[in-house]
Amino acid sequence: DLSAMTTTADDAVMPQAPAAESELQRRVWCRHFRPSRLYVHAHLEFDRPPESASRELLHATLAEALRNSFGSCGSALCNWTLISWDEQTGFLILRVRPEDLSQVRFALTLLTRCAGRRCRADVRAAAPSLAALACVR
Fold this sequence. Notes:
With 137 residues, this protein is of the alpha+beta class. The chain is 34% helix and 25% strand. The protein has a five-stranded antiparallel sheet with strand order 2-3-1-5-4. It is globular.
């Protein structure tokens, strides 16, 4: 008997989602923005200005500081890029993953020599974009 197997529109009932699930479905967009990269603005202060502190030398010095702090494997997992370096003022900008920010900051604080001169690094700001970094005072 086919009449017993067919249902009409009045008989069909859409299952209702529980209240918690429907609230979760309404909030499709997450309120918290997690950037995929951060930009770190730091200042390298020398006791005496070096003759030349090239970009390659600074890159090697930061890589060595990471390697001394976290070992070869730990420093290899830390993903960072030197975006900008001004030899005259000592300002630098690094791009890092948010997960690696604490390791890079730690390595910067342990930085004591660069280009044969004693130095120290001060992290001025960290921001999710270069535009936001420019706005930080």
